[in-house]
Structure formats: C-alpha cells, structure tokens
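Page 37, top half.
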Amino acid sequence: MQKFALVVPALLLLGVFSAQADVYAFSYTGYNSVEKITIYGSGTFTTGTAYSDGYLRIISITGTTEAGTITGLDGSGGGVDADPPSYYTSSDGGGAYYYDNAFLPGSPTPFTNNGLLFEVSSGSPYTPINIFSVAPGLYEYSYGESNTGSFTAAPITFTATLTPEPGMYGVLAVGMIGLLLSVTKYRRRCRQL
C-alpha cells in the first residue's frame, strides 16, 4: 500500500509536466505610417494538431484590436495544396489574402509568410486582419481589401506566450498533496521503528 501511495502522486506530476498546453496569449503593436494610427491587439489563440512540418493548426482566436473585438478566424477561401495547407480568400468582394492559420512556437518565424487571418467586429476596412512573418523576428500586419485600394500593411512587434491550462493547477495540487501525505506517513513509520 505504501508503494501505491508514492506511485500515484508521481504519476500525476508526470502527467502534468508531459501534457502540452495549447493556449497562447498574444499581443502585437505597431504604427501605420500611411494612416498615422497605432496598431495594437491582444488575446488568446488555441492550437490543435500539428502539421507534418511541426506547425500547429490554430483552431480559434479571441481578443481585441484597435479595430474592435476579434470575432474569429477567417474560414473563407479555397485550399492550396501544401502542408500546412494555405488558403486564398476574396472576402468582401474583391481583396485577397493567402493564409494558413499555422503557428510554430519557439521559432524565429512562428508564422509562415501566409500567416494568421482573423475577422474583427468593426468591419471594413479592417476586416480581415492578416499577421504573417516576413523574416525572422519581423512580422507584418495587413488589413482591408487589396483590390479596392484600402489595403494597408505595417510592420509590427508580435509576442505569443504559452499559457497553462486551468485544470493543470488542480492536477498539480492533487499530486503535491498526495506526495506530502505519503512523505508524512513514511516519516511517521520511520519514527516508530
């Protein structure tokens, strides 16, 4: 019974440290010199399964930008054969974006040159917004419709940080309590001998 009491907390702790959380807190800032406005945004995005090249599929996004509330990923457009697959959209009647909504954590280019495409509540000209990697550590932010003349791009500073899943803290607490109880019980038995 004593061995079982030590094994269970150890397995719980191992499960906590081997589980990969998939929620990232992000923020970006920049300046659009054409329209003389500060660009900013923050929120979270959730990743799903990985593509064969290690990029993770972004499956949802929430947050706010200078243009309004983020309402979700842009899912329009047709697929282009690639891994991760890229898409071409011509939403709002004319403009076009390539995107793949793929993210590679820990990379100097965590987005591809197609990048992340999401919608915001304010509508045109800010919808959709596209964030993509131009070079290691260099990101670009684009919005509007390229064929209607309202397309604008500006360099931004982008960060994304992995956030732990809320349930992780509960599992960690249970594991630590079990470990503490096991050690206390072991010490009592040693004193009795």
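Page 37, bottom half:
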Amino acid sequence: MRIALLAAVLALSLLGCAKPVPPERGAYVGQWQSPAMSLLITRDGSVKYKRIKGGVTTSVSGPLQSFEGDDFHVGIAMLSTRFVVSRAPYQENGAWKMVVDGETLTRQ
C-alpha cells in the first residue's frame, strides 16, 4: 500500500516537470508511428513511447526535459532517456517523417 501511494505521489509530482515544446521545435509535436514504434509528443511536453524489438517491448512515459541538438531527453534526473534523432521532422511526399533511434516514423 505504501509503495502504491509513493508511486502515485511521484507520478503526480512529475506531471508538473514537463517543459513545453519550444515553438521552433513545433514540428516534433504529434503522434508518430512505424510498425515497431509509437511516439507521442504533446505540446505541453508529455512524451509516451513504445517500441517492440526482438520480442522485447520497451515503454517510456514522462516529461520532456530538454533538446540537445535534434535529440531530446525525457524523464527526471537519473531516470531520463535520450532519444537520438538522426533526422529531424521533414516532409516527404506530403507526409511528415522523423528518424528516432534508427526507426523512420510517420506523423499520423
């Protein structure tokens, strides 16, 4: 019971830690998909990620912390994850695409 309460308090405290996506990074906002990956970035800085690779599912949900070049960091302090963006959002044949952690995603 104490662990569940602590987890709930921690989750609520994290909600206020997200940094809104800066206007110059507005193209990052949206629901991005590929067959193996899903990435949601909201304007208020909330991020939800899910990837299936080699039969293993990885999920991350947390606040956007910062951008470093085209890459971005999600989470809090020691519990943060860096998303490597090898190609920032771009348009191809009328669709928005971005390459994150080696995966080409299309904005839905």
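Margin note: Confidence is low (pLDDT under 50) at residues 1-10.
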